[in-house]
Fold this sequence. Notes:
- By secondary structure, this protein is of the alpha/beta class.
- The chain is built from six helices and 14 strands.
Amino acid sequence: MVNARHTASSSEEDRLTRRQALGRAGQGLVGLAALAQLSGGGARTAAGAPTLEPAPPASSPRSEPRPAEKLKLATCQFPVSGKIVENAKYIRDFLHQAADAGAHLLHTSEAALSGYPGVDIPSFQNFDWNTLRGETAALRKEAKELGLWLVLGSAHFLDEQTKPTNCLYLIDPQGRIADRYDKCMCTGGDQKHYSAGNRLVTHDIRGVRIGLAICYDICWPQIYMAYREKGVTLMIHSFHNARSKGPNCLDVLNVRQVPTRCADNRLWAVANNSSQPYSHWGSFIARPDATIAKQLEINQPGLLTHEFPDGLSEGGWYHNFQPLKLREDEIMTWGTPSKHPRQIDGQAEP
């Protein structure tokens, strides 16, 4: 998400209603057990590295076994740049760290591989799409060798005349693209570079239904509400609030908004960020009692792990026993989606 001073702009024809968005989101999956039935418990100890360590060979034994009954998720932060190969090296190293920690899934930040236009790169003009495809393929192969899910922040090419999407590829442990989420709510700055998304993406992994979101989506309460109505219990939310001149309102906005959205909808969330200085906040885990379970420091690489389903904080409780329902005509996109076949197909190759 670009600086909050950028204003969102869109015409009526650019807006997609909730009914349209949910209709494009694919067939629903069987709902999970009610959140109120999840076991309680305090925060678990963070397992993260403040600095990157050399990645071990793929054949190395894991330091920790993967939990049999839960989803162990690892989220990472690093100084995202306009150098695709350098970004890929960070992600590859974190894939190995996640595997060593016994995680099932690694989560990366917004535009983690591609770099963020207007911040890390000037624009997509003369962008090296071939290198992006090559590094994406290599990371998919690495995830397969390690048996990990990978949520990969990137950009999805449509064609030379159409703006790409700001996306999260959901890559399964076989290295396949299980689905792709395209950022639905685009800031005014985003709209200069990206086509807006127009569908929500959920997936069941080890009994936990996840929903995917990107940065500015958090400023629109209907996004988390819509995911709750689709049976999601864990939001995987990628941000880019970094490479700034210094503190501003973003230092407090998302560390308050994310836990509030969780409390309103009885959800958990994993929110991560680029650590490129100045980064406004460190990656964190939010609970439905509006508390933050764990958080990394700003301005430095690191890895955070957590297991789901999870309980509330010690002494915490649910606050909302009758969450709001969406209007049928709710706006679910901000910007201009394309009708390109490569955007419509959630499993399209990069």
